[in-house]
Amino acid sequence: MIEQSLGDWQKEMLSRFPLKNDAAFICPACRRVSAVKDIIAAGGDADDAPQQCIGRLNGKGTPNGQDEGFGCNWASYGLLGTLGKGRKVVFPDGHKAEVFDFAPEVPADANA
């Protein structure tokens, strides 16, 4: 698992996704890719994108980590974190948090 400072994580995000709302993350449980703009449209905020599968926000997610077309209800701050498939971000105060990994570049309609 990659561990990096908040600043380095943000720099990498902006190098991959120049527009913050286009930043996309992959759920470690169901592997669904969701961008910040998708999370916001589902009722969340930008900070939810690297921590919650979209199914947790749209109310249609499955509890078993499988995507049945809407995502699952996984959260990186749960008991099992990111199942070793995410990243660990170190905040300036020393606090560490697991977050979903960045998604590879995908077409905008990849999950449609």
Please characterize this protein's 3D structure:
The protein has 112 residues and is of the alpha+beta class. It has one domain (2-102). It is 20% helix and 18% strand. The chain has helices at residues 6-16, 36-41, 54-58, and strands spanning 2-5, 24-26, 33-35, 87-90, 96-99, 101-102. β2 (24-26) and β3 (33-35) form a beta hairpin. The N and C termini lie far apart (29 Å). The model has no long low-confidence stretch (mean pLDDT 88).
The H-and-E topology, N to C, reads as: EHEEHHEEE
Helix content: 10-25%
Q: What is the total tally of β strands?
A: 6
Structural class: alpha+beta
* Overall number of structural domains: 1
Shape: globular
Gyration radius, to the nearest Å?
A: 13 Å
Q: Please state how the strands of the largest beta sheet are arranged side by side.
A: 1-4-5
Determine the number of helices (DSSP H or I, runs of at least 4 residues): 3
Largest sheet: 3 strands, mixed
